Amino acid sequence: MDWNHLLTPFSKDFFLELGTSAGIFIFVLLFGYVIGDRIVPRLSGILFQNKIQSSHPLYKAGRRIVRLLFFLLASYLFLRFLKLSENVGDFLFLSFRIAAIILLTFSLVRLFSAVFETYSEMTEGLLSSASIISNVIRITLFAIGVLLILQSLGISVAPILGALGVGGLAVALGLQPTLSNLFSGLSILMGKQLKKGDYVRLQGDGLEGYVQDITWRSTTIRRFNNSTIIVPNSVMSSSVFTNFDLPSKELSITIESGVAYRSDLEKVESIAVETAKEVLKQFYKTGTDKEVSFTYQRFGENSIDFKITLPSFEFTDQFTIKHEYIKRIHSRFQKEGIELRFQTKKEI
């Protein structure tokens, strides 16, 4: 048996090449980790003005993809500095290319999803973080990754795209309702008519609540009792609905009442406005910029009627604010000897 022939691959030159390649691999990898920890914070500070923390998904995704790029570069240089035979080299580089495409695809999916969510938060839901957008991003990136892998394997992509084009027409005809819901959902989001977290009211008794999600098929709305309304996107886009969060979340709460004719109207107004500000301060600790509006409306049969308007910055707050204000104004008027009266409407 020729032992020298068996030991040829493990010669001194081989170990020298292996050591050089491993040294380059470790150096580039460590350099990438150091640069990654410096590049990402700087980019974060420039692009987002230090508004995201190191625990934010976008920060983590950015650092992960920078490290991955240096890992792939280190792996490529490791293989390049090894003097491999043509067959072995071709096999290893092909395997490396496919693995790199897979790893980059998954990393880009995380990165783009994090970028989209961060952009939605910073623009107050200009494009909401609805799952329909995230799913479109994922499907698009995964499709590109698959096509790149097929092309790396020597499989022509053009016939596949042509077949998908012809077959896609038949599939589109069969999935017309599904595609209608998909494009209707995208139309709702792009038109800024609706976003996740908005409070909406549809036509029909009890059809109102917070928008939980807009998927590729339907819009999910959570009601006060935690039950769920599921509306197909095609129906949602063609329906008349009220969005209480557009153009802003601020609403006006109007309360009407009346006092006896002998009441001191200046005192009534002062107490009503003062009580309203106390209630608002209880709900909104930072205070409100909008003033409380108080106006006398008419001389009624038994009372002088007035109307007071309070701001509310969340749709559901109005009920609790009105409840608390009525209790407090009633108690305060009783202490001050002011008689509340209500005009009785005559039936015709």
From TrEMBL:
Chief location: membrane
Domain of life: Bacteria
Keyword entries, A-Z: Cell membrane, Membrane, Transmembrane, Transmembrane helix
Pfam family, one: MS_channel_3rd
InterPro entries: LSM_dom_sf, MS_channel_1st, MS_channel_C, MscS_beta-dom_sf, MscS_channel_2nd, MscS_channel_C_sf, MscS_channel_TM-2
Domain Mechanosensitive ion channel MscS: 178-244
Membrane topology, record value: Multi-pass membrane protein
One GO MF term: mechanosensitive monoatomic ion channel activity
Compartment(s) where it occurs, according to its Swiss-Prot or TrEMBL record: Cell membrane
Mechanosensitive ion channel MscS C-terminal domain sequence ranges: 254-340
A GO cellular-component term linked to this record: plasma membrane
Domain Mechanosensitive ion channel transmembrane helices 2/3: 135-176
Ribosomal protein is among the record's keywords: no
Family to which the UniProt record says this protein belongs: Belongs to the MscS (TC 1.A.23) family.
PANTHER family on file: INNER MEMBRANE PROTEIN, YNAI-RELATED MECHANOSENSITIVE ION CHANNEL
Name this polypeptide is given: Mechanosensitive ion channel protein
Species whose genome carries this gene: Leptospira adleri
UniProt lineage: Bacteria, Pseudomonadati, Spirochaetota, Spirochaetia, Leptospirales
